[in-house]
Specification:
Methyltransferase, Cobalt-precorrin-4 Transmethylase, Domain 2; 2 domains; about 20% strand; homodimer; five-stranded parallel sheet; Cobalt-precorrin-4 Transmethylase, domain 1; alpha/beta; five-stranded mixed sheet; elongated
Chain lengths: ~240, ~240
């Protein structure tokens, strides 16, 4: 038997937002590999997938460092991809779980690149992104007619950043992913460019502790959860 | 029994990329409403959903005008939302199928807005977007680290458009949705801003007539299919 690596997007939170394909692959693989969070609550991605896993599959939770230190991250990705390749070389099928979509700001990308270089057979299964789920839940069309959409990984952009301000000036609708720590600056920027009126803050959609806040001013000065997203439409009410 | 309207994203093409939630709702509703295309081949969204529909459900295909004439479109959306409301008022549950995600450039948005104004109970189920499915299939991470992503509905933007050029200048990775008619101009623009090297053209992913072309120059001068997408990364090889 030839080993294979799967990257599987489990969506934002609701276990029923997994794809039928993801569920089928869970029944084919030997090992489910899930990233563990630092807070000791186990793996969020694993909790989402759990209702769809059979009794037979082996579950391995792996700690990923929560840091922006590139050396620490690269060492960790090297180590974990070697760990995965060990199973593949023994003919095992391994599925790595990832929140949302595997190709949108996910840790999976770094494992994917390393294992691809090692000629491992890989299949990636897309997942529902947080921003699509939010748009459906809250009833905000993300893009219609000629509107353009930008997706910005907030942790890398501070208030006053030129690149950020150019994007806000030129794009109609904005999604800020991981809008946690820097939220006050983001709200200021949205206010300056006319996006604030049509905005909504959503945290942990479909998970315990879900927050949907349509007056984003109420999220100022708060250390928001890591799984937080701001969606904002220029010059438009969201309803 | 109270009627209800569902908007359901069926994803880009592979029937197994539907969500488990979509499948569950198919078993609860009385009527499946699917948009019919002009080419007489029936509804693409319906063909994707078909393997998951039970025998009991009533299927209605509705013609939508393929035009940019706002009056014609608005009359059609008014007429179709009234048609849907007729069923809701008689206590029926109606699911409207939409390709990809319902809140990303979909016809559903216009029905959703009208029926919301009429206080119809609505639930929208997100779907896998074409660009996420393309990223997984081709192995292009859409966004990693500090990279920003823009999504542009190509039909509204011609070569030389100032808004388009500002977006290309300021955003790292670009998704052109519906990259069919205007593709020569889009390729020129991507070339000018350093996005061309890291680009891929994908048409009808997971459907009959699927095209994946990593040298986008080969798509010049061609009237490409309506369901075509260009994904481009700035200054980066896609592999």
């Amino acid at each position: 038997m030839k080993g294979k690596f799967y990257g599987i997007g489990v969506g934002p939170g609701d276990p029923d937002l997994l794809t039928i394909k993801a569920k089928k692959i869970f029944d084919e693989v030997d090992i489910i590999l899930a990233p563990e969070t630092k807070d000791g609550k186990g793996s969020t991605a694993l909790n989402i997938a759990k209702p769809h896993l059979n009794q037979r599959v082996e579950i391995i939770e792996k700690k990923f460092p929560m840091t922006y230190d590139v050396d620490v991250l690269n060492n960790s990705y090297d180590e974990i991809s070697d760990f995965i390749k060990g199973f593949i070389d023994r003919g095992k099928k391994v599925a790595f779980l990832t929140l949302g979509d595997p190709m949108v700001y996910s840790t999976y990308i770094y494992l994917f690149k390393r294992l691809k270089l090692k000629n491992v057979e890989i299949e990636t299964i897309p997942g529902i992104t947080s921003f699509c789920a939010i748009a459906s839940k809250v009833g905000i069309p993300l893009g219609e007619n000629e509107e353009t959409i930008a997706i910005v990984p907030s942790v890398y952009y501070k208030k006053g950043d030129e690149k950020l301000e150019n994007i806000l000036k030129n794009v109609d609708n904005i999604v800020f992913m991981k809008a946690s720590g820097q939220i006050d600056g983001l709200i200021d920027e949205l206010d300056n460019t006319g996006h604030k009126k049509g905005s909504v803050f959503v945290s942990r959609l479909g998970l315990d502790g879900q927050i949907i806040e349509e007056d984003i001013e109420n999220r100022r000065g708060i250390k928001n959860n890591y799984l937080s997203t701001l969606v904002a439409k220029k010059n438009k009410s969201i309803r």
